[in-house]
Design a protein that fits this description.
This protein is α/β, with parallel strands linked by helices. 53% of the residues lie in helices and 12% in strands.
Length: 264
């Protein structure tokens, strides 16, 4: 069977589920979604426009799916699996999109199909997942199928050992929390210097994108600039003095970065 002949069933019409369903559909798959509640109007209208069938009945949903991907919150995965379990047969492949989930053996045996990216909102405009990896943790005999599914939607499949999933997921958390909090803190300090709030946030966001571009071109070490990279102790002392006076709550963060650089 050609991989695109696999019928994709998504459980959950939230940020991850709807976005994933949308991309699979655009790549030629038959896609259906199962939800307990009615999705927001704009989601329902989009699914109808894309001819993605919406199911409430677990039996009919299972009948129309070959690969079922559970895209709910961690706490709801077990319940979602229980609802459809009696309608599953040996041909069904089941996965969920949580990389940090741990529960009973029954759920741990379900494959993991985790997009290494953030989903702050339902995004039905994404055409594919180019540039992103999908972490896959499953029995060896299922890896090729999930790997092909990832490739078909533009992602790069990466096999992750089950015991390494928390480490894999921790990396994503550091990226999301680190970038957001770094930009937020930098913008607040910039605002204190006299730049208006909107401009400060926009400037720090733009600066961050420029840093990422430099990392892509040169790597992390060569992309570093500024007094820490130059080891300009005079400048660093002035920063510390200014922070103590005007932004004492940001001082620990700055000192942590200075110490981290000195130890590297």
């Amino acid at each position: 069977m050609n991989i695109t002949e696999k019928r994709i069933g998504i459980i959950g019409a939230g940020k991850v589920g709807t976005t994933l369903a949308s991309v699979f559909k655009k790549k030629g798959f038959q896609v259906s979604i199962k939800t307990k509640t009615t999705p927001p109007r704009y989601v329902s209208d989009f699914l109808k426009e894309m001819k993605i069938q919406l199911f409430r009945d677990s039996g009919k949903f299972a009948e129309n799916s070959d690969v079922i991907i559970i895209c709910t919150q961690e706490k709801d995965i077990g319940g979602a699996l229980s609802e459809i379990s009696k309608f599953l047969n040996k041909k069904h492949l089941i996965a969920h999109t949580s990389a940090s989930f741990s529960a009973n053996d029954k759920i741990q045996s379900v494959s993991v199909f985790h997009p290494f990216m953030s989903f702050p909102a339902v995004d039905t405009k994404i055409e594919d997942f180019s540039g992103f990896i999908f972490g896959i943790s499953c029995k060896d005999k299922y890896f090729n199928v999930f790997s092909e599914l990832a490739k078909k939607i533009g992602a790069r499949p990466v096999k992750i050992r089950g015991d390494m999933l928390p480490l894999y997921h921790a990396s994503a958390v550091i990226l999301v929390e680190g970038m957001i909090k770094s930009i937020k803190n930098a913008a607040e300090i910039l605002e204190k210097s006299g730049v208006d709030r909107k401009t400060a946030l926009k400037t720090c966001t733009f600066f961050s994108a420029d840093i990422i571009s430099n990392i892509e071109k040169m790597g992390t070490e060569k992309a570093e600039t500024g007094p820490l990279a130059r080891k300009s102790e005079d400048v660093i002392r002035k920063h510390i003095k200014a922070l103590k006076k005007h932004c004492p709550e940001k001082l620990d963060l700055y000192l942590t970065l200075v110490k981290s650089k000195a130890e590297s």
